[in-house]
Design a protein that fits this description.
The chain is mainly beta. It has 2 helices and 15 strands. It has one domain. A 13-stranded antiparallel β-sheet has the order 8-7-6-5-4-3-2-1-15-14-13-12-11, covered by helices on one side.
């Protein structure tokens, strides 16, 4: 059970990082710091909480996702990057997770000068060729928001993980009104398709909160997981 909870926490953190939608933004707004809190549920039962925090120091940005499922499991993901003409330049990504007394770690270092990306996952090291515009699981979400408010979405986004660079695509499926503990929001519904059957991830993003995900669900065969917004501090329209 604890292992499933931990996988859920990391999965939701990662997949929420790359959301695709169109048509709601009426003006360009610069990216700004925020903090959002969520309720975490497994198979319809509330088991824990999660937070997303974006902070800034000059042109150095940090995006952190923290999730906890009681005293059994926890996960933290951190993305560090800079901005260049509204484009994210990835610097590093890390993930630490814990189930009871068992710890797991993963890190990515982006080195455009050397044209390499180096990764380390539970002491296994890899290196592969760097590509322009490559993102990590967290900052991809922020890049998509910037694109939506600017020149428009790309046909795909390149994301690095521990083993390779992957291309991600998402499908818009209309709009929906979502009720949360923080309020009710008009949202855009976006579905991420998975290669494996029986899996589906859905995001609901609120333009009023600068396209913040206010709800996320993931179905993996007979298991279901979800996040629902409970509080928010940051930009709103």
């Amino acid at each position: 059970m604890a292992v499933l909870q931990l996988k859920t926490l990391s999965l939701i953190a990662g997949v929420t990082s790359a959301v695709l939608l169109t048509g709601y933004s009426s003006q360009t707004l610069a990216m700004s710091p925020f903090q959002a809190s969520y309720q975490f549920a497994y198979n319809g039962k509330n088991l824990g909480s999660a937070t997303r925090t974006l902070s800034q120091s000059g042109n150095n940005w940090s995006y952190v996702f923290v999730a906890k499922a009681g005293g059994l499991a926890s996960a933290t993901e951190t993305s560090k990057f800079s901005m260049n003409n509204n484009q994210i330049v990835s610097s590093s990504f890390s993930r630490t997770s814990k189930v009871l007394v068992h710890n797991n770690t993963m890190s990515i270092k982006f080195n455009p000068a050397a044209k390499t990306i180096t990764t380390s996952k539970d002491k296994e090291n890899r290196s592969f060729a760097w590509k322009a515009g490559v993102l990590d699981e967290l900052n991809a979400e922020l890049q998509i928001r910037e694109d939506l408010k600017g020149s428009g979405l790309k046909s795909n986004y390149l994301l690095a993980d521990a083993n390779e660079i992957e291309s991600r695509k998402f499908i818009k499926q209309g709009s929906e009104k979502i009720k949360t503990n923080y309020g009710t929001f008009d949202t855009v519904k976006v579905v991420m398709k998975h290669d494996k059957p029986g899996r589906e991830t859905i995001f609901w993003l609120a333009p009023k909160l600068d396209y913040l995900p206010v709800k996320v669900t993931h179905q993996d065969k007979k298991s279901s997981y979800g996040l629902l917004l409970t509080s928010y501090k940051g930009m709103s329209k």
